[in-house]
Design goal:
- The protein is α+β, with helices and mostly antiparallel strands.
- The protein folds into 2 domains: 2-84, no CATH class; 108-459, Porin.
- The protein has helices at 2-18, 21-27, 30-72, 74-84, 402-405, and strands at residues 102-118, 149-155, 160-168, 174-182, 204-212, 215-221, 247-255, 258-263, 267-270, 279-281, 288-297, 300-313, 316-330, 335-345, 359-361, 367-369, 371-382, 387-399, 410-422, 428-441, 446-459.
- The strands form 2 sheets. It has a 16-stranded antiparallel barrel with strand order 1-3-4-5-6-7-8-11-12-13-14-17-18-19-20-21.
- Strand 5 and strand 6 (215-221) form a beta hairpin.
- It is elongated and about 155 Å long.
- The two termini are 74 Å apart.
- Mean pLDDT is 86; it is low at 1-28 and 70-86.
Length: 460
Protein backbone atom coordinates (compact mmCIF):
# COMPACT_ATOMS: atom_id res chain seq x y z
CA UNK A 1 0.00 0.00 0.00
CA UNK A 2 2.78 2.48 0.87
CA UNK A 3 4.46 1.88 -2.47
CA UNK A 4 1.22 2.69 -4.36
CA UNK A 5 0.78 6.03 -2.52
CA UNK A 6 4.30 7.13 -3.38
CA UNK A 7 3.72 6.20 -7.02
CA UNK A 8 0.54 8.33 -7.14
CA UNK A 9 2.34 11.34 -5.62
CA UNK A 10 5.09 11.17 -8.18
CA UNK A 11 2.57 10.96 -11.01
CA UNK A 12 0.74 14.05 -9.69
CA UNK A 13 3.98 16.02 -9.50
CA UNK A 14 4.80 15.10 -13.07
CA UNK A 15 1.39 16.30 -14.33
CA UNK A 16 1.62 19.64 -12.48
CA UNK A 17 5.08 20.17 -13.82
CA UNK A 18 3.84 19.60 -17.34
CA UNK A 19 0.89 22.05 -17.19
CA UNK A 20 2.82 25.36 -17.86
CA UNK A 21 4.65 23.98 -20.89
CA UNK A 22 2.36 25.64 -23.47
CA UNK A 23 2.67 29.10 -21.85
CA UNK A 24 6.37 29.00 -21.32
CA UNK A 25 7.09 27.62 -24.75
CA UNK A 26 6.35 30.99 -26.29
CA UNK A 27 8.62 32.92 -23.90
CA UNK A 28 11.48 30.58 -23.66
CA UNK A 29 14.01 30.12 -26.27
CA UNK A 30 14.94 26.79 -27.76
CA UNK A 31 17.71 26.22 -25.25
CA UNK A 32 15.40 26.54 -22.26
CA UNK A 33 12.89 24.20 -23.89
CA UNK A 34 15.49 21.51 -24.38
CA UNK A 35 16.59 21.76 -20.72
CA UNK A 36 13.02 21.37 -19.54
CA UNK A 37 12.43 18.32 -21.75
CA UNK A 38 15.59 16.67 -20.42
CA UNK A 39 14.38 17.18 -16.85
CA UNK A 40 11.00 15.59 -17.63
CA UNK A 41 12.66 12.57 -19.24
CA UNK A 42 14.83 12.09 -16.16
CA UNK A 43 11.81 12.20 -13.84
CA UNK A 44 9.92 9.68 -16.00
CA UNK A 45 12.90 7.29 -15.90
CA UNK A 46 12.96 7.55 -12.09
CA UNK A 47 9.26 6.66 -12.02
CA UNK A 48 9.90 3.60 -14.22
CA UNK A 49 12.76 2.43 -11.96
CA UNK A 50 10.66 2.84 -8.81
CA UNK A 51 7.70 0.97 -10.40
CA UNK A 52 9.94 -1.94 -11.39
CA UNK A 53 11.42 -2.13 -7.87
CA UNK A 54 7.93 -2.21 -6.31
CA UNK A 55 6.84 -4.98 -8.70
CA UNK A 56 9.88 -7.11 -7.85
CA UNK A 57 9.29 -6.67 -4.11
CA UNK A 58 5.60 -7.64 -4.43
CA UNK A 59 6.54 -10.78 -6.40
CA UNK A 60 9.10 -11.78 -3.77
CA UNK A 61 6.52 -11.32 -0.98
CA UNK A 62 4.00 -13.48 -2.87
CA UNK A 63 6.52 -16.33 -3.26
CA UNK A 64 7.43 -16.15 0.41
CA UNK A 65 3.76 -16.36 1.44
CA UNK A 66 3.21 -19.39 -0.85
CA UNK A 67 6.20 -21.23 0.61
CA UNK A 68 5.01 -20.47 4.12
CA UNK A 69 1.55 -21.87 3.38
CA UNK A 70 3.04 -25.03 1.86
CA UNK A 71 5.27 -25.57 4.88
CA UNK A 72 2.32 -25.15 7.21
CA UNK A 73 0.57 -28.23 5.71
CA UNK A 74 3.23 -30.83 4.79
CA UNK A 75 1.03 -33.86 5.63
CA UNK A 76 -1.69 -32.97 3.15
CA UNK A 77 0.84 -32.37 0.40
CA UNK A 78 2.60 -35.70 1.02
CA UNK A 79 -0.70 -37.55 1.21
CA UNK A 80 -1.88 -36.05 -2.08
CA UNK A 81 1.37 -37.08 -3.73
CA UNK A 82 0.98 -40.61 -2.40
CA UNK A 83 -2.55 -40.89 -3.72
CA UNK A 84 -1.69 -39.90 -7.25
CA UNK A 85 1.65 -41.70 -7.49
CA UNK A 86 1.79 -44.94 -9.43
CA UNK A 87 2.35 -48.15 -7.36
CA UNK A 88 6.00 -48.90 -6.78
CA UNK A 89 7.42 -51.87 -8.63
CA UNK A 90 7.91 -54.89 -6.31
CA UNK A 91 11.41 -55.72 -5.20
CA UNK A 92 13.10 -58.43 -7.22
CA UNK A 93 13.65 -61.26 -4.72
CA UNK A 94 15.22 -63.64 -7.24
CA UNK A 95 16.93 -61.53 -9.92
CA UNK A 96 17.88 -64.63 -11.96
CA UNK A 97 14.36 -66.10 -12.00
CA UNK A 98 12.25 -66.12 -15.14
CA UNK A 99 10.08 -62.96 -15.34
CA UNK A 100 6.59 -63.50 -13.96
CA UNK A 101 7.60 -66.38 -11.66
CA UNK A 102 5.54 -66.75 -8.48
CA UNK A 103 7.23 -68.37 -5.49
CA UNK A 104 5.35 -70.23 -2.76
CA UNK A 105 6.32 -71.87 0.53
CA UNK A 106 4.50 -74.10 2.99
CA UNK A 107 4.55 -77.18 5.18
CA UNK A 108 3.63 -78.21 8.69
CA UNK A 109 5.05 -78.88 12.14
CA UNK A 110 3.91 -82.24 13.55
CA UNK A 111 4.55 -83.73 16.98
CA UNK A 112 3.74 -87.45 17.27
CA UNK A 113 3.39 -89.18 20.64
CA UNK A 114 2.48 -92.86 20.92
CA UNK A 115 2.27 -95.70 23.36
CA UNK A 116 2.68 -99.14 21.74
CA UNK A 117 2.24 -102.67 23.04
CA UNK A 118 3.20 -105.71 20.94
CA UNK A 119 2.38 -109.33 21.77
CA UNK A 120 5.23 -111.24 20.10
CA UNK A 121 8.40 -109.21 20.48
CA UNK A 122 9.76 -105.67 20.34
CA UNK A 123 9.95 -103.35 17.33
CA UNK A 124 13.57 -102.23 16.92
CA UNK A 125 14.33 -98.83 18.43
CA UNK A 126 14.75 -96.09 15.80
CA UNK A 127 13.17 -98.18 13.04
CA UNK A 128 10.19 -97.17 10.90
CA UNK A 129 7.75 -99.23 12.98
CA UNK A 130 8.46 -97.04 16.00
CA UNK A 131 7.60 -93.88 14.06
CA UNK A 132 4.34 -94.91 12.34
CA UNK A 133 2.34 -98.03 11.48
CA UNK A 134 4.57 -100.24 9.33
CA UNK A 135 2.69 -103.55 8.86
CA UNK A 136 5.78 -105.62 8.08
CA UNK A 137 7.34 -104.53 11.38
CA UNK A 138 4.67 -106.02 13.65
CA UNK A 139 6.67 -108.70 15.53
CA UNK A 140 5.72 -112.36 15.06
CA UNK A 141 7.67 -115.16 16.72
CA UNK A 142 7.96 -117.86 14.08
CA UNK A 143 8.43 -120.51 16.79
CA UNK A 144 5.51 -119.26 18.87
CA UNK A 145 7.72 -118.28 21.81
CA UNK A 146 7.35 -114.51 21.55
CA UNK A 147 7.10 -112.13 24.50
CA UNK A 148 5.13 -108.93 24.93
CA UNK A 149 6.75 -105.50 24.98
CA UNK A 150 5.58 -101.92 25.45
CA UNK A 151 7.21 -98.54 24.84
CA UNK A 152 6.54 -94.84 24.37
CA UNK A 153 7.89 -92.81 21.44
CA UNK A 154 7.75 -89.05 20.88
CA UNK A 155 9.17 -87.37 17.78
CA UNK A 156 8.73 -84.54 15.27
CA UNK A 157 10.33 -86.28 12.29
CA UNK A 158 7.37 -85.90 9.97
CA UNK A 159 7.49 -82.11 10.11
CA UNK A 160 7.65 -80.99 6.50
CA UNK A 161 8.36 -78.03 4.24
CA UNK A 162 8.07 -77.38 0.51
CA UNK A 163 9.04 -74.73 -2.05
CA UNK A 164 7.30 -74.06 -5.35
CA UNK A 165 7.87 -71.82 -8.37
CA UNK A 166 5.13 -71.27 -10.97
CA UNK A 167 5.53 -69.42 -14.26
CA UNK A 168 3.30 -68.68 -17.24
CA UNK A 169 5.35 -67.64 -20.26
CA UNK A 170 4.38 -65.01 -22.82
CA UNK A 171 3.19 -67.84 -25.06
CA UNK A 172 0.94 -69.21 -22.31
CA UNK A 173 3.10 -72.23 -21.40
CA UNK A 174 2.83 -73.32 -17.76
CA UNK A 175 6.04 -74.16 -15.92
CA UNK A 176 6.29 -75.43 -12.36
CA UNK A 177 9.15 -76.49 -10.08
CA UNK A 178 8.49 -78.15 -6.73
CA UNK A 179 10.66 -79.59 -3.96
CA UNK A 180 9.53 -81.13 -0.66
CA UNK A 181 11.38 -82.63 2.29
CA UNK A 182 10.86 -83.85 5.84
CA UNK A 183 13.03 -85.23 8.66
CA UNK A 184 11.98 -88.88 8.35
CA UNK A 185 15.54 -89.91 7.58
CA UNK A 186 14.63 -92.97 5.52
CA UNK A 187 13.20 -94.93 8.44
CA UNK A 188 16.42 -95.29 10.41
CA UNK A 189 18.13 -92.92 12.84
CA UNK A 190 21.29 -95.03 12.97
CA UNK A 191 23.33 -92.61 10.83
CA UNK A 192 21.66 -89.40 11.98
CA UNK A 193 21.98 -89.56 15.76
CA UNK A 194 19.93 -90.88 18.66
CA UNK A 195 17.53 -89.84 21.41
CA UNK A 196 20.19 -89.48 24.10
CA UNK A 197 20.88 -85.75 23.76
CA UNK A 198 19.83 -83.83 20.64
CA UNK A 199 17.39 -86.15 18.79
CA UNK A 200 19.06 -85.40 15.47
CA UNK A 201 17.08 -86.40 12.39
CA UNK A 202 18.22 -86.62 8.78
CA UNK A 203 16.65 -84.62 5.97
CA UNK A 204 14.64 -86.77 3.54
CA UNK A 205 13.82 -85.82 -0.03
CA UNK A 206 10.14 -86.51 -0.70
CA UNK A 207 9.43 -84.78 -3.99
CA UNK A 208 11.49 -82.85 -6.54
CA UNK A 209 10.08 -82.31 -10.00
CA UNK A 210 9.52 -79.86 -12.84
CA UNK A 211 6.42 -79.78 -15.03
CA UNK A 212 5.79 -78.15 -18.39
CA UNK A 213 2.18 -78.04 -19.55
CA UNK A 214 1.16 -81.74 -19.71
CA UNK A 215 4.61 -83.15 -18.94
CA UNK A 216 6.21 -83.89 -15.56
CA UNK A 217 9.78 -85.03 -14.88
CA UNK A 218 11.27 -85.78 -11.48
CA UNK A 219 10.40 -87.55 -8.24
CA UNK A 220 6.82 -87.52 -6.98
CA UNK A 221 3.98 -89.90 -6.11
CA UNK A 222 3.65 -92.86 -8.45
CA UNK A 223 0.99 -92.48 -11.10
CA UNK A 224 -0.25 -95.88 -9.86
CA UNK A 225 -1.14 -94.34 -6.47
CA UNK A 226 -4.28 -92.33 -5.67
CA UNK A 227 -3.14 -89.88 -3.00
CA UNK A 228 -6.55 -88.17 -2.88
CA UNK A 229 -8.17 -91.36 -1.54
CA UNK A 230 -5.97 -91.60 1.58
CA UNK A 231 -7.94 -91.36 4.86
CA UNK A 232 -7.70 -88.58 7.42
CA UNK A 233 -5.60 -90.31 10.09
CA UNK A 234 -3.32 -89.34 12.97
CA UNK A 235 -0.82 -91.97 11.85
CA UNK A 236 1.43 -91.05 8.93
CA UNK A 237 -0.52 -93.27 6.50
CA UNK A 238 -3.02 -95.25 8.56
CA UNK A 239 -4.29 -98.20 6.48
CA UNK A 240 -0.79 -99.01 5.25
CA UNK A 241 -1.23 -102.69 4.37
CA UNK A 242 -4.12 -101.98 1.97
CA UNK A 243 -2.60 -98.89 0.36
CA UNK A 244 -0.69 -98.49 -2.89
CA UNK A 245 2.17 -96.27 -1.74
CA UNK A 246 5.25 -95.22 -3.72
CA UNK A 247 7.24 -92.08 -4.52
CA UNK A 248 9.89 -92.37 -7.21
CA UNK A 249 11.54 -90.73 -10.22
CA UNK A 250 9.40 -90.76 -13.35
CA UNK A 251 8.40 -89.16 -16.61
CA UNK A 252 4.64 -88.53 -16.82
CA UNK A 253 2.23 -87.24 -19.44
CA UNK A 254 -1.31 -86.09 -18.58
CA UNK A 255 -4.08 -85.23 -21.00
CA UNK A 256 -7.64 -84.76 -19.81
CA UNK A 257 -8.68 -87.67 -17.56
CA UNK A 258 -5.74 -89.83 -18.70
CA UNK A 259 -2.18 -89.98 -17.38
CA UNK A 260 0.72 -92.24 -18.34
CA UNK A 261 4.15 -92.68 -16.78
CA UNK A 262 7.47 -94.50 -17.03
CA UNK A 263 8.88 -94.91 -13.52
CA UNK A 264 12.03 -96.10 -11.80
CA UNK A 265 12.18 -99.93 -11.70
CA UNK A 266 13.27 -101.90 -8.65
CA UNK A 267 12.70 -105.59 -7.88
CA UNK A 268 12.30 -107.22 -4.47
CA UNK A 269 12.95 -110.97 -4.35
CA UNK A 270 12.27 -113.69 -1.80
CA UNK A 271 15.11 -116.22 -2.07
CA UNK A 272 14.35 -119.91 -2.32
CA UNK A 273 13.42 -121.18 1.12
CA UNK A 274 12.53 -117.69 2.35
CA UNK A 275 13.04 -117.57 6.12
CA UNK A 276 12.13 -113.87 6.06
CA UNK A 277 15.08 -112.86 3.89
CA UNK A 278 14.74 -110.49 0.92
CA UNK A 279 16.93 -109.43 -2.01
CA UNK A 280 16.72 -105.97 -3.60
CA UNK A 281 17.74 -105.93 -7.26
CA UNK A 282 18.42 -102.87 -9.40
CA UNK A 283 19.34 -104.73 -12.60
CA UNK A 284 15.98 -104.09 -14.30
CA UNK A 285 16.09 -102.53 -17.76
CA UNK A 286 12.49 -101.67 -18.59
CA UNK A 287 10.88 -98.96 -16.43
CA UNK A 288 7.63 -99.63 -14.59
CA UNK A 289 4.81 -98.44 -16.86
CA UNK A 290 1.50 -97.06 -15.56
CA UNK A 291 -1.76 -95.72 -16.95
CA UNK A 292 -4.59 -94.00 -15.06
CA UNK A 293 -8.12 -92.80 -15.84
CA UNK A 294 -9.82 -90.33 -13.47
CA UNK A 295 -13.26 -88.76 -13.22
CA UNK A 296 -14.39 -86.30 -10.58
CA UNK A 297 -17.24 -84.00 -9.60
CA UNK A 298 -19.11 -82.56 -6.63
CA UNK A 299 -19.89 -86.14 -5.62
CA UNK A 300 -16.17 -87.00 -5.20
CA UNK A 301 -13.84 -88.89 -7.53
CA UNK A 302 -13.28 -92.36 -9.03
CA UNK A 303 -10.15 -93.69 -10.70
CA UNK A 304 -8.70 -96.87 -12.20
CA UNK A 305 -4.94 -97.44 -12.61
CA UNK A 306 -2.88 -100.17 -14.27
CA UNK A 307 0.74 -101.22 -13.72
CA UNK A 308 3.03 -103.21 -16.04
CA UNK A 309 6.43 -104.45 -14.85
CA UNK A 310 9.39 -106.52 -16.02
CA UNK A 311 11.79 -108.14 -13.54
CA UNK A 312 15.41 -109.21 -14.12
CA UNK A 313 17.77 -111.03 -11.78
CA UNK A 314 20.82 -113.18 -12.39
CA UNK A 315 20.02 -113.62 -16.08
CA UNK A 316 16.34 -114.48 -15.57
CA UNK A 317 13.30 -112.42 -16.57
CA UNK A 318 9.70 -112.30 -15.43
CA UNK A 319 6.74 -109.99 -16.11
CA UNK A 320 3.92 -108.80 -13.90
CA UNK A 321 0.94 -106.50 -13.82
CA UNK A 322 -1.60 -105.09 -11.38
CA UNK A 323 -4.77 -102.99 -11.17
CA UNK A 324 -5.98 -100.50 -8.57
CA UNK A 325 -9.47 -99.04 -8.15
CA UNK A 326 -9.99 -96.21 -5.67
CA UNK A 327 -11.93 -93.07 -4.93
CA UNK A 328 -13.85 -90.86 -2.55
CA UNK A 329 -17.64 -90.60 -2.33
CA UNK A 330 -19.23 -87.62 -0.57
CA UNK A 331 -22.27 -88.57 1.50
CA UNK A 332 -23.85 -85.23 2.31
CA UNK A 333 -22.11 -82.23 3.82
CA UNK A 334 -20.57 -84.02 6.83
CA UNK A 335 -19.62 -87.52 5.65
CA UNK A 336 -17.50 -89.21 3.01
CA UNK A 337 -16.32 -92.72 2.16
CA UNK A 338 -12.78 -93.35 0.92
CA UNK A 339 -11.66 -96.68 -0.50
CA UNK A 340 -9.01 -98.56 -2.46
CA UNK A 341 -8.81 -102.12 -3.83
CA UNK A 342 -5.62 -103.32 -5.56
CA UNK A 343 -3.98 -106.54 -6.66
CA UNK A 344 -2.04 -108.46 -9.25
CA UNK A 345 1.09 -110.44 -10.04
CA UNK A 346 4.23 -108.61 -9.00
CA UNK A 347 2.42 -105.80 -7.14
CA UNK A 348 4.87 -106.49 -4.27
CA UNK A 349 6.72 -103.32 -3.31
CA UNK A 350 3.83 -101.04 -4.27
CA UNK A 351 1.44 -102.57 -1.71
CA UNK A 352 1.60 -102.13 2.06
CA UNK A 353 5.09 -100.60 2.22
CA UNK A 354 6.48 -103.66 0.37
CA UNK A 355 4.75 -106.09 2.72
CA UNK A 356 5.40 -108.88 0.20
CA UNK A 357 8.10 -109.34 -2.41
CA UNK A 358 7.61 -108.76 -6.13
CA UNK A 359 9.05 -112.15 -7.04
CA UNK A 360 10.35 -115.41 -5.60
CA UNK A 361 13.18 -117.70 -6.73
CA UNK A 362 12.48 -121.37 -7.29
CA UNK A 363 14.98 -124.15 -6.65
CA UNK A 364 16.57 -123.55 -10.06
CA UNK A 365 16.99 -119.80 -9.55
CA UNK A 366 14.19 -118.73 -11.90
CA UNK A 367 12.00 -115.72 -11.11
CA UNK A 368 8.26 -115.99 -10.46
CA UNK A 369 5.95 -113.02 -9.90
CA UNK A 370 4.09 -113.21 -6.58
CA UNK A 371 0.39 -112.39 -6.29
CA UNK A 372 -0.84 -109.92 -3.69
CA UNK A 373 -4.14 -108.19 -2.92
CA UNK A 374 -5.16 -105.45 -0.54
CA UNK A 375 -7.58 -102.67 0.17
CA UNK A 376 -9.11 -100.33 2.73
CA UNK A 377 -12.34 -98.53 3.51
CA UNK A 378 -12.56 -95.35 5.59
CA UNK A 379 -15.58 -93.42 6.85
CA UNK A 380 -15.10 -89.78 7.82
CA UNK A 381 -17.70 -87.79 9.78
CA UNK A 382 -17.62 -84.12 10.78
CA UNK A 383 -19.37 -83.63 14.12
CA UNK A 384 -18.93 -79.86 13.89
CA UNK A 385 -16.74 -77.38 11.98
CA UNK A 386 -14.01 -78.03 14.57
CA UNK A 387 -14.39 -81.75 15.36
CA UNK A 388 -14.18 -84.72 13.00
CA UNK A 389 -13.66 -88.46 13.32
CA UNK A 390 -12.60 -91.42 11.17
CA UNK A 391 -13.13 -95.18 11.24
CA UNK A 392 -10.74 -97.19 9.04
CA UNK A 393 -10.23 -100.87 8.19
CA UNK A 394 -7.39 -102.20 6.03
CA UNK A 395 -6.21 -105.64 4.92
CA UNK A 396 -3.62 -107.30 2.64
CA UNK A 397 -3.34 -110.97 1.62
CA UNK A 398 -0.25 -112.47 -0.06
CA UNK A 399 -0.49 -115.61 -2.18
CA UNK A 400 2.80 -117.32 -1.38
CA UNK A 401 3.92 -120.58 -2.93
CA UNK A 402 5.29 -122.11 0.26
CA UNK A 403 7.32 -124.67 -1.72
CA UNK A 404 9.54 -121.74 -2.70
CA UNK A 405 8.98 -119.15 0.04
CA UNK A 406 8.84 -121.42 3.07
CA UNK A 407 6.44 -120.83 5.96
CA UNK A 408 8.08 -117.90 7.71
CA UNK A 409 6.79 -115.22 5.33
CA UNK A 410 3.79 -112.94 5.81
CA UNK A 411 0.49 -114.42 4.75
CA UNK A 412 -1.90 -111.67 5.91
CA UNK A 413 -1.87 -108.30 7.67
CA UNK A 414 -4.83 -106.23 8.82
CA UNK A 415 -5.61 -103.26 11.05
CA UNK A 416 -8.51 -101.20 12.35
CA UNK A 417 -8.33 -97.68 13.76
CA UNK A 418 -10.60 -94.93 15.06
CA UNK A 419 -9.72 -91.32 15.73
CA UNK A 420 -10.98 -87.91 16.74
CA UNK A 421 -9.32 -84.74 15.45
CA UNK A 422 -10.10 -81.35 16.98
CA UNK A 423 -9.17 -78.06 15.28
CA UNK A 424 -9.51 -75.18 17.79
CA UNK A 425 -8.07 -72.79 15.22
CA UNK A 426 -7.73 -72.97 11.44
CA UNK A 427 -4.74 -75.11 10.38
CA UNK A 428 -4.16 -76.46 13.92
CA UNK A 429 -5.08 -80.13 14.57
CA UNK A 430 -5.10 -81.97 17.90
CA UNK A 431 -5.71 -85.68 17.32
CA UNK A 432 -5.97 -88.97 19.18
CA UNK A 433 -6.16 -92.39 17.50
CA UNK A 434 -6.61 -95.94 18.76
CA UNK A 435 -5.46 -98.79 16.53
CA UNK A 436 -5.16 -102.56 16.56
CA UNK A 437 -3.06 -104.46 14.01
CA UNK A 438 -2.21 -108.10 13.35
CA UNK A 439 0.30 -109.88 11.12
CA UNK A 440 0.10 -113.60 10.35
CA UNK A 441 2.74 -115.91 8.90
CA UNK A 442 2.19 -118.85 6.54
CA UNK A 443 2.79 -121.24 9.46
CA UNK A 444 -0.19 -119.74 11.30
CA UNK A 445 1.73 -117.78 13.93
CA UNK A 446 0.36 -114.30 14.67
CA UNK A 447 1.55 -111.11 16.26
CA UNK A 448 -0.63 -108.25 17.52
CA UNK A 449 0.06 -104.58 18.04
CA UNK A 450 -2.05 -102.05 19.97
CA UNK A 451 -1.28 -98.35 19.89
CA UNK A 452 -2.53 -95.06 21.31
CA UNK A 453 -1.31 -92.28 19.05
CA UNK A 454 -1.70 -88.51 19.52
CA UNK A 455 -0.46 -85.61 17.47
CA UNK A 456 -0.27 -81.84 17.35
CA UNK A 457 -0.06 -80.54 13.80
CA UNK A 458 0.11 -76.96 12.52
CA UNK A 459 -0.03 -76.27 8.78
CA UNK A 460 1.55 -73.12 7.36
Amino acid sequence: MIGNKKLAALATTAVLSAMPLSALAQAMDAQAMEARMAQLEQEMQQMRDMLQAYQQRDAANANANANANAAAAPTATALDATRVAAPAAPAVVMPNAMPGTKFSFGGFIKLDSMYTRTSDGEIADGSAGRLFYFPGATPVAADGNGHSASYTDVHAQFSRFWLGADTITERGDKLKAYIEADMYGGGSNAFAGNEVITNTYALTLRQAYVSWNNWLAGQTWSNFQDVAALPDTVDFTGPSEGTIFSRQAQLRYTRGPWSFSAENPQTTITPFGGKGARINSSTDVMPDLTARWLTRGDWGHFTVAALLRNFRYDGHNESGGALSVSGKFNMGANDDLRYMVSGGAGVGRYLGFALGSDTVLDEEGRLHAMDGYGGFAAWRHAFSPKLRGNLVYSVAVLDNDTAWTGYEVTDKAQSVRANLIYSPFPKLDLGVELSHAQRRLENGEKGDMNRVHTHVKYNF
